[in-house]
Amino acid sequence: MGRLSRRAFALAALSTLMSGADAGAAPARRPRAGTEMRAVWLATVTNRDWPSRTGMSAAQQSAELLAHLDTAARRRLNTVILQVRPTADALWPSPHEPWSQYLTGTQGRDPGWDPLGTAVAEAHARGLELHAWFNPLRVAVHADPSRLAASHPARRHPEWVVAYGGKLYYNPGLPEVRAFVQDAMLDAVAKYPVDAVHFDDYFYPYPVAGQTFDDDEAYDTHGGAFASRADWRRDNIDRLVRDTAARIRSVRPGTRFGISPFGVWRNAATDPRGSDTRALQSYDDVYADTRKWVRENWIDYICPQLYWHIGNSSADYAKLVPWWAEVARGSGTQLYVGEALYKAGDPAQPARWQDPAELSRHLAFARDFPEVGGHAFFAAREMEVDAHGAMARVVADHYQQPAMPPR
């Protein structure tokens, strides 16, 4: 189905879902035009959202997946961001990497169906875009290479792997690693009409006190042109992002490339261009120069994870939205906002998250910034249950009418 005809079909499909949507408070005062991002992340790592457990039959897994797609459509969302490569593995038959353990419980075991192929077809049938979410560098959420499938590339190339913080990672300082992970990810793009490639916030690992990411040999070999190891590491991630963008355009023109980084680039106390925050800094701590990627228009969209409430003392949602809006202004990179649905009603969270209206207030606040083209919600499990009613409130206040995803 062509791009225009599929978009027309999608709008018609969304319109038919209006009678089954959530009831609640009155719609927002100033309805947005008919195009905005309304997305949900569907995480597979550690069976967070789907499959809810390992070892289910193919029919059970498929039914659970379709239920998540139905929920997204019923909430009048238009995009599902499905994690298809959670730990250097695959949710499709890949010639590069083993089947994900989160399907069967055993890495490399064929689940008996094609989850990504099914997800793309069934999402499109419901008028939803399907963004294929890849974690480019995480190999395992444990530190024991012997637990990986015997055929795993990390076992065939142990020199590619760094153990850090109780986990295993590919070393992005090696050109052969960057080339391989692109090959592995782009296999899915070549095989399936995904609407976008999506990276999350994991580049170099988040800092662990008292531990060192051992990339000495790679730095000695490849880092001579750089003033510091930090500059070299940022360049490695820049190359991964820039090269991935170019290869997506080559493999499947029209497929978008988006990244959902940690919500703080740098604090203003560190860099006057930074935000009025006191938080971890993606530029310094995971070597991700997210501001550059937007300003240079290397990516089609950025969706910073602004997982803080309005008024947070260290990272205030109401300060970060205007900061990101200014970064995106005139760049050609679209801006969406990542929302912490998972925090709504969690008794471990601050008092503001106990109010079911907190997320709705986020959308109302962001509506005043024309650069904000929509929102993505983490994550599907909470959207399915919505025990606190926060998502129902968002739908009632802001999603009374269907909307097409931006292109």
TrEMBL record:
Signal peptide residues on this chain, from the entry's feature table: 1-23
Domain Glycosyl hydrolase-like: 36-348
Record keywords, A-Z: Hydrolase, Signal
Domain of life assignment: Bacteria
Record-linked InterPro entries: Divisome_Glycosyl_Hydrolase, GH, GHL10
Alphabetized GO MF terms: hydrolase activity
SUPFAM superfamilies (UniProt xref): (Trans)glycosidases (SSF51445)
PANTHER family hit by this protein: GLYCOSYL HYDROLASE DIGH
Protein name, entry field: Family 10 glycosylhydrolase
Organism, as annotated: Streptomyces chromofuscus
